[in-house]
Amino acid sequence: MTKAQKTAILGLLFALPSFMMVIVIVAYPVVESVILSFQSVDGDGLTLDHYRNFFTSNVWRANIFYTLNVVIWTTVANTIIAYSFAIYLVFTKSKISKLLSRLYLIPRFIPGIVAVFAMMAFVRDTGAINRFFMEFFGMDVRVNLMHTPLGLIITNLWFNIPFATMLIVAGLSDIPSSIIESARDVGAGRLRVFTQMIFPLSFKSMAISATFVFMGNIGSFTTPFLMGANFPRMLGVALFTEFRQFFNIESASALSVLMFLMSALVGIAYIYTSLKEADWEK
Q1: pLDDT recorded at residue 43
Q2: Alpha-carbon gap, residue 201 to 188, rounded angstroms
């Protein structure tokens, strides 16, 4: 046995415990959920009724469209805001940008349920905004953000902007400053430098952040459970209700598989984008 073969075997042995942990904790529950999703309620045979119900029932279709509406708008708005903020932090050399670069990650250290309750106390009809206007202007201002898609999107942005900004900042920081300076020396304007150099070089990090934000929100529970409406519901809340309240394990398993497929489609799009050779690399 050669030294290279011994090294390869040793590496496999070191990776085996982690691989077995993934099989037990991740792969087995996924396979079990897929199997249960095709079982009938009485357990007599296989059926597609659970999946068919998602697209024929008005209730489930409303839940799916509602979830996709909130998640897509959250992802789009988060990507635009986080990318713009990251551009400011990386390419603006000022005291304010340096201060913000040290402070913008603070929301990541606040427990999720604490942040949601703080947001609820801020935006509800008798919350901080209403009390501020009543105290100083005598106006009964009600923002009406509780139990609305806009309220969920704003709260999701509070959670996701710091995380997405961190990923995009890392990608922007890898761009050599000499490339940008050379382009400016030969007469390239700021818009051209951004569209032809900065954006293509940072596109992958932006795509990574958008992918993680979409996957993190498609099955979110805490925020929609506390701030969402009773109908339609986000899929994470609907999954909890289906499993915990109705004990409909087969339908809950099918819903889990459906949510996984939604995330998988976004993941496949990201992988394709990452592996595709960019024009400037050819």
Answers
A1: 67
A2: 17
Which residues, 6 or more positions from 110, have their beta carbon under 8 angstroms from its beta carbon?
Answer: none
pLDDT over threshold 80, residue 78: yes
More confident residue, 92 or 76: 76
pLDDT tens digits, one per residue of 250-270: 888 899 999 988 888 888 877
* pLDDT tens track for 11-52: 888 888 888 888 888 888 888 888 888 888 776 778 888 889
Q: Is residue 150 part of a domain?
A: no
Residue whose entry in the numeric block shows the structure tokens 């300076």: 181
Q: Is residue 235 part of a domain?
A: yes
Give which of 42, 23, 43, 40 is closest to 31, Cα–Cα: 23
Distance CA 68, CA 217 (A): 10
Residue 163 carries which side chain, given as an amino acid letter? Answer: F
The alpha carbon of residue 186 and the mean position of all alpha carbons in its chain are separated, in whole angstroms, by 40
Q: How many structural domains is the chain composed of?
A: 1
The reported pLDDT for the residue numbered 94 is 84
**Model pLDDT for residues 230-256, shown as the tens digit of each residue:** 889 999 999 998 888 778 888 888 999
Contact residues for 79 (Cβ-Cβ < 8 A; gap 6+) = 164, 206, 209, 210, 213
Residue ranges making up the domain that contains 183: 58-103+158-275
The per-residue pLDDT for 45 is 78
Domain CATH code at residue 178: 1.10.3720.10
In order, the DSSP letters of 84-103 are HHHHHHHH--SHHHHHHHHH
Sequence-ordered list of residues with C-beta below 8 angstroms from that of 117, at least 6 positions apart, any chain: 226
What is the SS3 assignment for 186?
Answer: coil
Q: Which helix or strand (DSSP H or E) is residue 148 part of?
A: none
Residue 229 identity = A
Rounded Cα distance, 38 and 256, in Å: 12
